[in-house]
Specification:
The protein has helices at residues 11-18, 26-44, 157-172, 204-213; strands at 51-58, 65-67, 73-81, 84-85, 91-95, 100-103, 132-138, 180-184, 189-192. It has 2 domains: 11-48 and 149-218, no CATH class; 51-138, no CATH class. A 4-stranded antiparallel beta sheet has the order 1-7-3-4, with no helix packed on it. The longest helix is centred in the N-terminal third of the chain and has 19 residues, at 26-44. The protein is built from 4 helices and 9 strands; from the N terminus they run ααβββββββαββα. By secondary structure, the chain is an alpha+beta fold.
């Protein structure tokens, strides 16, 4: 099985962590890498891998900051509001890690809510349209996408490490009930792990990384 585009570690790294010296378990390792990587992205509510030329439509709320969904931001190619291209000097990346883009010309991002149909023409909160289009490069370079001759990976090591921990744990627990944390054969005593929110039970490092990088930490 090939690694998915969003795989957060590599087959050989997990193989080494498991102490496996041949390729016999690679298919199973790849499945776990793909599954655990997707779980990390789903629980964090974000995509980690770098994208070039991402086109993202945003609602406007009349604020000075726009929050893009795939930090860290590298470059912004173009910003349009209602198909009008903004001058590149009128905005700037304010906080790459958080995905913040600030109006740098003293103005604000427009409030894109619809207007009432009556004489007041007041705007209707909650009816904001995605009228702001941003084209940009954002996200981290994943280990599998790094160049061998000149390593360029930028994915934080704590993310990859947590994914490896979770994969190793699941690999070694094949055939076991992963909810069981301790057993006593003679007394038939069994202890059960307490699931995380949503009924999931992860390794401590995996849960810590989810809490650290979930998108709500960046105001979304």
């Amino acid at each position: 099985m090939a690694l998915a585009a969003n795989a957060l570690t590599e087959t050989g790294i997990v193989r080494d962590e498991l102490g496996i010296n041949d390729l016999s378990q690679d298919s199973r390792i790849d499945r776990l890498i793909n599954f655990v990587s997707q779980e990390m992205e789903d629980d964090c509510g974000r995509i980690f891998g770098q994208g070039v030329g991402i086109v993202e439509l945003q609602k406007g709320f009349g604020s000075t900051i726009l929050i893009l969904t795939r930090p860290p931001l590298t470059t912004i190619t173009e910003v349009k509001i209602d198909d009008l291209v903004l001058d590149a000097t009128s905005y700037s990346i304010d906080d790459p890690k958080a995905g913040f883009v600030r109006r740098s010309d003293g103005s604000i991002w427009p409030w894109t809510a619809l207007r009432r149909g009556d004489i007041t023409r007041d705007r209707l909160p909650g009816s904001e349209e995605k009228a702001i289009q941003v084209t940009y490069t954002g996200g981290w370079i994943l280990p599998k996408d790094s160049l061998p001759e000149a390593p360029t990976r930028t994915l934080p090591h704590d993310i990859e490490g947590a994914v490896i921990d979770e994969i190793v744990s699941r690999f070694r627990q094949k055939g076991r009930d992963t909810r069981v944390t301790s057993e006593k054969a003679l007394s038939e005593s069994i202890s059960w792990a307490k699931p995380e929110k949503g009924g999931k039970s992860y390794t401590p490092s995996f849960q810590r990384v989810i809490n650290k990088y979930m998108r709500d930490r960046f105001g979304r």
